[in-house]
Structure formats: C-alpha cells, structure tokens
Write a structure and sequence with these properties.
With 767 residues, the chain is α+β, with helices and mostly antiparallel strands. It contains 23 helices and 27 strands. The strands form 4 sheets. The protein has an 8-stranded mixed beta barrel, surrounded by 5 helices. Helix 1 packs antiparallel against helix 6 and helix 6 packs antiparallel against helix 7. Bound molecules: ligand C2E and calcium ion (2 copies). One calcium ion binds next to loops.
C-alpha cells in the first residue's frame, strides 16, 4: 500500500516539478522575448524620433535662412540706389529708409559711410541724428564687401536686443572699387525670433538657435526652454555627450545627444547647422515626454510579448505596427497648429504631395485671407483674435470633405485643398463658406465686420513636383492686391499667373544689380513738328531698354510695372534722366543744335517731397538748360492725385522744365484736371485715334478733343502714329507734333544723331 501510496504521492510531485520547469522555461522565454522586444522597440523609437527631430530642425533652419535672405535682399536692392552721388544727401536717403522701414521689413535702416558717419531712420523715433559707427563689426564687414548678420546686440537706439544686417554700398561708376559704405538694417530679436516655430510636439519640445560656442542666440519663447544663456553651462550629467556636442559644434556638423540637466527632466537634443554665421538650430524634446510615449508602447509590448509566446510569428508585424503608430502620434503633434488644432503648413505640404490624384486637374488650392483681421486683433485684443481664428477653423473643418485638406498657415491665413471637378459647384460652395466665415462669432455687440477673400488655383500635373509653399506664396500676391477692393471675393490664379509671378520675382531680384551694372540703355524716339510744309524734328522721347545677360531682352511694359509696384522705378527714372543729361551735354559740347528730350516720370516720384530739387540737381550737374528737358507724367497720375501733383508740376514749370501729360485717352478722365495743372503738352495715345480715325463718330470726338486742347493752349502730340495716312489726317485736324514709327522707331543715341539730329541741324539753326 505504501508503495502504491508512494506511487500515488510521487506522481503529482513529478507533475508539479514538470509544470514548474515548463513554467520557468515559459517565463524565461517570455522574459527573453520581452527584453528583446523592449530593446528593439526602444531603439526603433529613439531612431525614428531622432530622424524626425532632425527633419524639424532642418525645416526651422531653412525658415531662419529664408528670413535672413529676405532681409539681406531688401538691403541689397536698396544699396543699389545709394551711390557716391547721393551719399551726402541725407534728406533723400532718409526718405528712402523711411519707405523701407514703413514696409515693415526692419525696425530701423541706415547707411554708414567709409569714414564711419551714419544716419538712419527708426520706426519709432523717425530720423536719427548722425553718429559714428566705424568700430562696429557690421560696418567693417560690409566695407570689406561682405553681407553680414550679427549675433544679438544691445540696441543703442532702442531697448532690448537687436539683430543687425548689413551689405556693402558701391560706387556706381567704378566697378571693382572698394565699397564706399555699409547699408544697415536692424530688427528686434523678438520680432526676428518669431520666425521660429518655437513650440513643437504639442508643447513638449521647442527650438533654439545657438552658436558654435553653445551660446543661445534666439531663445525659444517656450516656458521649458530653461532660459540658459549657454547650452554647455547647464550642469549636464553626461560629460561624454557634452564633449561630443562641443566637438560637433566646433566642426560645424549636426548631431544629437541626450542630456540630463541636474535636478531637471532629461532632454533629447538634435542640432543642425543653419548655414548663417556659426549658427545651429537646436531642437529640444523633453525625455519625460519620450518616456511617456515609450511607456505606452512598452506596456502594449508586454501584452503582445505574452501573447507572442503562442503566436510569435504575428509578433513582429504587431511590433512594427505599434512602432509606426507611435511614430505617427509623435509626428502628429509636430504637424498640428496649436491654436486651432488644424494641420499646419508642413503637414499640408506633406499630405498634398503624397497624393498624386490631387494633381489631375480635379483639385484646387484655396488660400483664404481675412481683410481687417489685424485691425480686429488690435481693437479687440489677442484673446478675441484667437477665438475668432478658432471659430473660423471650425467652419472650415466642418466643411472639408473626404480627400480634401485644410490647414492654418499663419495668422489669418487658411489653406484648403478642395475638389473642384465641378467648377460651378465649387464656386457656390466657396461663396457659401466665405459667408459663413464672415458671419462667424464676433465679440458681443461689435459692429466690426471681417470680410474674407480667397484665391483659387487649380493644381495640374506639372505642379506635382513643385513646392506647395511656393505656389501659395505666389497666390498671396494677387490676394494681397485684392484687399483694397472689398467687392472681390474670389481671385482666380492660373498657370499664366504662376509664370508671371515667377518672372516678376526674377525681374525684381536682378533689376537692382542690373542698374548698378548699367544694363539699361536710353533709346531715343524722334518727335516731328508737322504744322509746316515739311516735318521738322522738334524733340525726342527717351525710352528705357533692358537687355539682361540673365533673362534676355525685357520690354519696358513688362518690367516698369513690376518696379513701379516695389517703388524702385524711381531709380530707373533718375538713371534715365542722368543718361539724357549726359547725352545732351555731349551734343552741346560737340556744337550741335539740340531739341528737348522728354523723360518719363513714374507716379512713384510724386511721393518724394524734394522731387523738383532732385531733378534740378541732376540737370544742373551737367549744366543743361532747363528747356531742353521735358517730363512726361501719365494720365493716370493726373486722374488720381490732386494737390501734390499740381504743386509739383507748377514748381517744375516755374523752374523752366517742360511738362507733358502722357497717354491721354487711355481711360482715365483727366479732362477736369487739365485746366488746373500747367501742362505744356498733351500726348494722345494711339488707342485714342488708331481705330477711331476709321469711324465718323471717332473722328468727331478726336477733332473735338484736339480743338479743345488747342483752345486751352496745350501743344498736342500724337503718339504711336504708324502710317503716312494717319499723320496726314492728324495734321489736317490741327495736331501739332507726331511721334511714331512713321518718322522713326526708338533707337540708340548714335543712330538718333545719324538719322535725325544731324540732318536737321540747318533747320534747327534757322529757327
Ligand atoms: P509710353 O511712355 O507711352 O511710350 C511710348 C511707347 O509707344 C513706347 O513703347 C514706344 O516704343 C511705343 N511706340 C512708339 N511709336 C510707336 C508706333 O508707331 N506704334 C506703336 N505700336 N508703338 C509705338 P515702349 O518703349 O515699349 O515703352 C512702353 C512704356 O513703358 C512707355 O509708354 C512708358 O510708360 C514705359 N517706359 C518706357 N521707358 C520708361 C522710362 O524710362 N521710365 C518710365 N517710368 N517708364 C518708361
Ligand atoms: Ca511716355
Ligand atoms: Ca504714351
């Protein structure tokens, strides 16, 4: 029995032991699998996070580069017009600086001459008294021919810190000479640091700009950025990591590190060079955040690992899935606009370019703009402004459909990708959407109305490899222009506009250098007096020609409007006046009898308070008798500006210059103004008589106009006269002067002398 009992007693004990061994083996396997999984997952997360943070750092660093390049190119543009000839003309320069400052690009702009004397204009204090700056690095660098961006400096004219940008100023006439001064622009650090998207990963990360010695150049506005003045100063735990980072920064290469600040939370840091000075973009992410993410993932892994003992095959797939999801969650927080919860620009760009079906012509980009939003912000405050933006975001995301996208880019700029395969339906939908935006929540009792406008661009196959951000940049231009006209709701933008915008940007970019390099030429087109038996040469119009070595021949009708829009046309006009004066000087010196030469004056000039003095200065510098210079103002200026124009024209007239009204009959009715402004001549545009000559009604109108102009005492000049027949008819009707292909095209000065001025010498001397 005992034996039996023994057997009976032994058998369960063996069973227990076997189970225990099996359990232990099982647990060991699970534990091993678990440890392996945990390691793999942790490494994977760290690696993908590192990669992603590098991408974010890269984006921030390009944003910084862009912001700096923008400011330098504004300065370069402006520097072309500061020359040895006007370097001592404080009033003129201050006026130009005021314009730049008022355009919002800088807090302050000024010029420092080679001897260190500087003047400038400040947004708050206006004109600054002259002071000496020769010891400043930004002056010295520019004088050595280098563009320069400073580290943050104490602002001597304001409070707080500022960044100084400088570029060299050259003497126009002598290529290859050393710079004669430095053109300097100043931004406050706060304003400039706004370029940085300082809060990332849902507020758990931030971006700083640091230099190679670890000094923080721009501190992120984020609370947890710690406020260290130097990243190496913090009491770091890991000396090795610190050394490695120090070495990388010194060598100008990017990298990553994990740091634990004493007593604080551990941080993960990724840094990439910005490409400006020795600056780096430093992305910092709290390791707590990383840990929390890790913990969630690990917990899931434990459950999975246990499960995986049975189905280890499925494990790998599941682990990978979890990794992908966790990465996605991490990315998500860096791709979201914190204020509204919508996608941000980076997310929009990624999603858009990831779907080729968007580029088949059935989808359009829609950029929204709220007219009056900044005023709203000023009047009702930031809080109300943010609330308004959130309600608008709600309206838009409520409207967005499957396959469509919506994002907030910045301030009041929202971007959508909408299905526009049915154009009419899409238009109706957008109008409805804008009505809803316009009626969105306003502070109680506020009468204030926000008006939305949008710009629509249909995406085509050719856009698939273009940067959506650049398309949006181009769309913003016509949208900005539409602001002045509240009646406009939808602005359409097409491929031609894209090409135009690109071309205009190119023209803008190279025009100032082109002016420096004297790529512009003054052609002359003859004007003939047709009253007598034989036509007699009585004048010439100077017309600008530009043959660019970069983009080829550009017609004035194309580049003048672009330069008119950015204000630099004034410098072309001044340059043309200088060329014309130099030309007249050489004719006078050669003993030729001269005819008056007309120079076009763009409307931009009328905003200079000292226009008349400027013109006189140029003309007198060559001792040209004033009656040999005529100035042409287009009819549109006359129609829109009042007293300023009358005063300027009157003054020019008093100083003995001739004044013509150009392009009469091109649509603006300047008739009522004619009698108030002392013009000498009125130029009839071809559109006024070209086809009109053919109809009897047109003839009657033209005849009436010529008669009226004559009675008011104006000389009439018909422009764009192409045929003998037109010229004969104009003569019969009493028109006095003709300019057009019929007598000669605009030609270089030598040809003008050969074909027109030299043959007319006898007639001119007899007069
Ligand atoms: P605009 O001042 O009305 O100049 C007359 C234009 O008519 C010139 O065009 C001239 O070449 C053209 N033209 C002359 N005769 C004939 C003709 O018989 N038939 C036809 N079809 N056209 C004729 P261009 O040189 O292309 O200049 C176009 C416009 O660009 C000018 O119109 C003027 O508004 C602007 N522009 C040209 N040079 C300057 C300049 O130095 N400064 C400024 N501010 N604007 C300029
Ligand atoms: Ca003209
Ligand atoms: Ca004209």
């Amino acid at each position: 029995m005992p034996a039996t009992r023994n057997v009976e007693q032994n058998s369960p004990r063996k069973g227990i032991a076997a189970t225990a061994i099996a359990c232990a083996a099982g647990i060991a396997t699970v534990a091993t699998v678990l440890v392996v999984c945990v390691n793999v997952i942790s490494q994977e997360i760290a690696a993908s996070l590192d990669l992603f943070m590098r991408e974010v750092a890269q984006v921030e660093s390009s944003a910084m580069q862009g912001a700096i390049e923008d400011r330098l190119s504004i300065l370069r543009g402006a520097s072309a017009f500061v020359t040895d000839r006007n370097l001592d003309d404080d009033e003129l320069l201050i006026e130009r600086f005021r314009e730049i400052v008022e355009s919002g690009s800088f807090e302050r702009v000024g010029v420092v001459t080679a001897d260190g004397r500087g003047i400038g204009y400040d947004s708050r204090q206006g004109e600054l008294p002259a002071a000496f700056y020769s010891d400043r690095a930004y002056v010295q660098m520019a004088l050595q021919g280098e563009a320069y961006v400073s580290d943050p400096l104490d602002d001597m004219w304001g409070s707080g810190m500022c960044i100084v940008f400088s570029v060299p100023v050259y003497n126009v006439k002598h290529e290859g000479d050393a710079p004669i001064g430095a053109l300097v622009g100043i931004s406050t650090v706060d304003e400039f640091a706004d370029t940085l998207d300082t809060s990332l990963f849902g507020g758990n990360g931030y971006v700083n700009i640091i230099d190679s010695d670890g000094n923080v150049i721009f501190l992120s506005g984020h609370d947890e950025s710690g406020g260290e003045a130097n990243v190496f100063e913090g009491p770091f735990e890991s000396a090795d990591a610190l050394d490695e980072m120090r070495g990388n920064l010194a060598e100008g290469v990017g990298g990553s590190a994990e740091f634990t600040v004493d007593g604080g939370s551990p941080k993960m840091v990724v840094y990439v060079p910005v490409g400006i000075n020795d600056w780096f973009a430093e992305v910092v992410l709290s390791a707590d955040y990383l840990e929390a993410k890790n913990r969630t993932v690990l917990l899931a892994s434990v459950v999975m690992a246990v499960f995986a003992v049975g189905v280890s095959g499925g494990l790998l797939a599941a682990v990978l899935g979890t990794r992908r999801r966790s990465q996605r969650r991490l990315e998500q927080s860096a791709l979201t606009d914190l204020l509204t919860g919508l996608d941000n620009g980076l997310a929009f760009k990624r999603k858009c370019s990831a779907r080729p079906e968007h580029f088949d012509g059935g989808f359009s980009l829609v950029l929204f703009n709220l007219v009056g939003f900044s005023l709203f912000n000023t009047v009702f405050g930031y809080q109300e402004g943010s609330a308004l933006l959130r309600s608008i975001a709600a309206v838009l995301s409520h409207d967005v459909r499957d396959g469509e996208l919506v994002a907030r880019l910045s301030d009041d700029r929202f971007l959508m990708l909408v299905d526009s395969s049915d154009i009419e339906a899409a238009e109706g939908r957008l109008l409805g959407l804008m009505d809803r935006i316009d009626n969105t929540l306003r502070p109680e009792g506020a009468q204030y109305r926000i008006v939305s406008q949008c710009c629509v661009y249909r995406l085509l196959r050719t856009d698939a490899d273009r940067d959506v951000n650049l398309i949006v940049q181009d769309m913003a231009v016509p949208l900005e222009r539409a602001k002045d006209d509240a009646g406009v709701r939808i602005v359409l933008f097409d491929e031609d506009d894209v090409a135009c915008a690109k071309r205009a940007r190119q023209i803008e970019n190279i025009a100032s250098t082109a002016l420096q390099k004297e790529e512009f030429a003054a052609y002359l087109q003859p004007q003939y007096d047709i009253r007598g038996e034989e036509p007699v040469l009585c004048g010439a119009e100077a017309l600008v020609r530009w043959n660019s070595p970069i983009i080829g021949f550009v017609a004035p009708d194309e580049f003048i409007p672009v330069l008119e829009a950015n204000g630099s046309v004034r410098h072309i006009d001044r340059y043309m006046l200088e060329r014309v004066c130099a030309q007249l000087r050489s004719w006078l010196d050669a003993g030729l009898a001269c005819v008056p030469v007309s120079v076009n004056l763009s409307r931009r000039n009328l905003f200079s308070a000292d226009l008349v003095e400027q013109i006189e200065h140029v003309v007198d510098a060559q001792s040209i008798p004033h009656h040999l210079i005529k100035l042409e103002l287009t009819e549109s200026i006359v129609a829109e500006s009042e007293e300023r124009l009358a005063n300027a024209v009157e003054k020019l007239h008093e100083h003995g210059f001739g004044i013509s009204m150009d392009d009469f009959g091109t649509g603006y009715s300047a008739f009522p103004k004619l009698k108030d402004v002392p013009f000498d001549a009125v130029k009839l545009d071809r559109s006024f008589f070209g086809e009109a000559i053919e109809s009897s009604r047109g003839r009657t109108v033209l005849l009436g106009v010529i008669e009226l102009l004559e009675r008011l005492g104006f000389e009439t000049v018909a422009e764009g006269v192409e045929t003998e027949k037109e010229a004969a008819q104009l003569k019969r009707w009493g028109c006095q002067v003709v300019q057009g292909y019929v007598f000669g095209r605009p030609v270089p000065a030598e040809e003008f002398v050969r074909d027109h001025l030299a043959p007319a010498q006898d007639q001119l001397r007899r007069r």
